[in-house]
Amino acid sequence: HWGYDGFRPQQREAMQAVLEGRDSVVVLPTGGGKSLCYQAPAMVMDGLAVIVSPLISLMKDQVDGLRECGISAAAVNSSMSNSERAQIATELRQGRIKLLYVAPERLCTERMLDFLHELKLAFIAVDEAHCISNWGHDFRPEFRLLGQLRDAFPDIAVHAYTATATEHVRADIAEQLRLHEPEFIVGSFDRPNLQYRVVRRQQVRSQIRDVIARHQGESGIIYCISRREVDATAADLLADGYRAVPYHAGLTDEQRHRHQDQFVNDQVDIVVATVAFGMGIDKPDVRYVIHAAAPKSVEHYQQETGRAGRDSLPAECALFYGQGDFITWQKIQSELEGEAAEHMRRSLKLMEQYCASVSCRHRALVEHFGQDYDGDNCAACDACLDQLEVVEEPLILAQKILSCVVRVKEKFGGQYVAQVLHGSQEARILENGHDKLSTYKLLSEFPLNAIRDWIEQLVAQGCLEKDGEYRTLGVTPRGRQTLKGEWTPRLLQPARKNAASSAAAAKTDHEAPFDAGLFEHLRQLRRELAGAKHIPPFMVFGDVTLRDLSRRRPTTAAGFREVHGVGERKAAEYADRFLAAIVEYCTAQGLTTDEDAPRPPVAPVAPERTRDPSERGASQVMADRWFEQGLSVEAVAETMGRALSTTRQYLADYVRHTGRTSPEPWLDAATFDRIAAVATDYPEERLKPLFEYFEEAISYDDLRIALACLRNRQTKSL
Ligand code: ADP
């Protein structure tokens, strides 16, 4: 149905729990693939899977997406007519629906529960399960009703799914749902395909444009704090010819829906929004998220940036912050009292530390959520991508700054201290006589912004602290140690090659190369097909599929079916149109297709396609080196942080490229001999008959490698 060839991390375990009927709490990050954890088991289990979901828009998307994959799913909600509901009830009684989506308040009505008792249930899955906990960020009282499910269906397993990380919330979910010794399955919170960058806000409009320029025609979200900024930014982008719309609570429901739909359907590229936007957006191909100001907590940051790159392709997250953002948030939330106010202040402080921090962003986020981060260099954040460089003499620099704080008697904030160090002529400084201090102008050779950054870095590293309403700087015990030369902080500044490397890095090569022109061509076709069916383009095929098509360039239905994300139903519906588009484009552009790929011995031997070495992507070259050393596919995938499916492609390409005639150690000699014995009867572009000949016992990947070796043998013997 889905056309995927492997599990995402923890999916197998989560599905196992469902299949075995054990209650479970599954915590995976946004884009981790939670839906499949209950959808796939629902397809092989007897009876109906009931999925509890908080938002009608989410349900609709899920149901439409499943139907596209040829799965009978339905939702019941208040927007339906009586006759529509009756129709679904009939189909449910006839056992023709596998998954039923329903909101908690509807599920927990007596009528609904009675109705479900007439049917055979497979299990109940609660999506966005953190909504049941008032410790979570999105408590919804109606979720509390779900506690009754245990009594209503004592023998049916209940599974909870969420992206919310804290242990507290997890335990609360299990308690509120009254789960029986649930299996807790918690994935890593790292999102390796997201590239994080945090920069002090300077000319935010141009900073925003720089990011957008790297993503022409791609989807992105820009978050601002206030409605006013949302409107101004959106208007500005529109005036510059970008397809952008605003989204905030000040618009009418109708306007908000329209803007959201336009974004999901690729009719606009950019949504400029307040925090009001996002819940219920499952658009998988958001390629960048910009924060034009700091969000109010690391949790919000994680959630909002998490909307980028759900399809696991590279995506960029840029945060432009200023010190004023934290004061603004404090004002907005000034009505909070007691514990809530304390919590808010703590959250803001942690967010501020994250902004000023000078170490790996992936590590900082993962550790924030209580997990360990493996590895020294994520290669996907400003700190690790050399966009920042270490200051040569951090101790002396820090001492200059700290002594200036002491000289102004710890009575002024960061901006003021930076101005004194920089040598500002501002009236306030002259009136206070601070131009007479020995630290005045002490750092005049550096830009004011750099000095501000270092002050924040010293706060983040505990040498300075901010106090009171005016956030005056004070020197901490660690700061005093630093003044005495007993402790050295780490201070960073933007690297000189900054601009170039950040642009290049944003396009980091995470996968094998594909033809960009063909990708655009297929994107256009996808848009047309989706428009005709009134569904979002990503439901026809995701970007991962279009890239894979632009890479493999299949010309036969069998080749089409092997592409990532192509299930039987979609193959039947779309193969003809896409194959025609591929052939047409490749012919016009003189591009090779899978027909030109190497063939088994029986096929006429095409001359070896001479490859331009530069055509081989950096990742492929890296993979070649590992394979050269005889590493397994699993080991190379792990070492390079790539999917197994991608790594298998690297291997096939490596075998072809190097002309190897033996598939060992990746395929054993006995299997190879079995394939060799019959391969001549099966031309390579039709792997399926061969696959069926071996009764599916030899995988497509093994077949492909074996055939590549056989072809190399033949070429050599000629
Ligand atoms: P979540 O609900 O955890 O945020 P989704 O269930 O929306 O994530 O999945 C995110 C994307 O990943 C979807 O496009 C989904 O189809 C895709 N996906 C899920 N599982 C796999 C898999 N095993 N292989 C490839 N893609 C997958």
Give structural attributes:
single chain, about 725 residues, alpha/beta, six-stranded parallel sheet, 32 helices, 17 strands, globular
Molecular structure report:
With 718 residues, the protein is of the alpha/beta class. It is 47% helix and 11% strand. It has a seven-stranded parallel β-sheet with strand order 3-4-2-5-6-1-7, with helices on both faces. Strands 8-13-12-9-11-10 form a six-stranded parallel β-sheet, with helices on both faces. A two-stranded antiparallel sheet has the order 14-17. A hairpin with a 4-residue loop joins β15 and β16 (472-475). α16 packs across α17 (414-422) and α17 packs across α19. The longest helix is centred in the C-terminal third of the chain and has 22 residues, at 568-589. The two termini are 43 Å apart. Mean pLDDT is 87; it is low at 498-510 and 599-615. The structure holds adenosine-5'-diphosphate. Adenosine-5'-diphosphate is lined by residues 4, 6-8, 11, 28, 30-36, 282, 284, 310-311, 542.
Number of helices: 32
In which range does the helix fraction lie? 40-55%
Mean pLDDT: 87
Shape, please?
Answer: globular
Widest β-sheet, arrangement of strands? 3-4-2-5-6-1-7
Distance between the termini: 43 Å
Number of strands: 17
**Unreliable parts:** 498-510, 599-615
